[in-house]
């Protein structure tokens, strides 16, 4: 394939799908990584019907070997990865008195650790100008104690994105986490489509004005000076 391409890790009917559709409208070929074969196939078919090139892989991204193979294969089929979007997180409704160490580590492996796997596999396909984006959450700063692992995941994800940006910036590749300061809903300012617009805008921020974290509070696209944070 030629032209720009997007790889969405954690593709499905919600925000992952909305991000895929938003970039596809700009002419991006789209690679989809997900666990639900039926939902990923449906999204890929929708993108193709709208005129976009779409490739997909069904894999458990916590399986390092399988995820590495899947991302490498998609990178080869796409030819390049201009935007890598990381969307997954685990929701486990357990407070600190009930959350086990094993449960916490399992969730962090999905919501944080898997980003290392897909980034390392995608790196040969990321050239100068490429962007890495991640779905952040206000849970990083304001965790709900009844789902304690989610806050740990989102705080860790934001921290890791900062390290990724510092590591890749000399190669002209930048990374950003988009902190969603609200609860995702089917309609309204925190609908998947609106949040996808914020992620798209964050990826398109000029290098000279780059931020490693951008907050989206539902009032705009998340790139205004009042919403962005370093």
Automatic annotation (TrEMBL):
Superkingdom to which the source organism belongs: Bacteria
Family matches, as Gene3D superfamilies: NAD(P)-binding Rossmann-like Domain
Keyword Oxidoreductase: yes
GO MF assignments: oxidoreductase activity
Entry keywords, A to Z: Oxidoreductase
Family membership: Belongs to the short-chain dehydrogenases/reductases (SDR) family.
PANTHER family named in the record: 5-KETO-D-GLUCONATE 5-REDUCTASE (PTHR43669), ALCOHOL DEHYDROGENASE, PUTATIVE (AFU_ORTHOLOGUE AFUA_3G03445)-RELATED (PTHR43669:SF3)
Name of the featured protein: NAD(P)-dependent dehydrogenase (Short-subunit alcohol dehydrogenase family)
């Amino acid at each position: 394939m030629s032209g720009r391409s997007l790889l969405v890790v954690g593709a499905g009917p919600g925000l992952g799908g909305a991000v895929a559709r938003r970039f596809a409208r700009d002419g991006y070929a789209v690679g989809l990584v997900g666990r639900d074969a039926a939902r990923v196939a449906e999204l890929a078919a929708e993108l193709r019907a709208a005129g976009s090139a779409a490739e997909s892989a069904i894999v458990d991204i916590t399986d390092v070997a399988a995820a590495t193979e899947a991302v490498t294969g998609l990178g080869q089929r796409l030819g390049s990865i201009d935007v890598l979007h990381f969307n997954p997180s685990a929701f486990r409704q357990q407070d600190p008195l009930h959350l086990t160490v094993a449960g916490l580590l399992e969730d962090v492996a999905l919501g944080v650790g898997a980003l290392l796997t897909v980034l390392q596999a995608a790196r040969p396909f990321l050239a100068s100008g490429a962007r890495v984006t991640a779905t952040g959450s206000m849970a990083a700063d304001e965790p709900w104690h009844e789902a304690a692992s989610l806050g740990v995941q989102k705080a860790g994800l934001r921290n890791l994105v900062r390290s990724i940006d510092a590591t890749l910036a000399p190669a002209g590749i930048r990374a950003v986490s988009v902190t969603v300061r609200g609860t995702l809903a089917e309609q309204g300012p925190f609908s998947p489509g609106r949040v996808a617009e914020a992620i798209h805008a964050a990826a398109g921020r000029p290098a000279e004005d780059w931020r490693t974290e951008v907050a989206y509070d539902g009032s705009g696209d998340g790139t205004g000076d009042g919403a962005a944070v370093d």
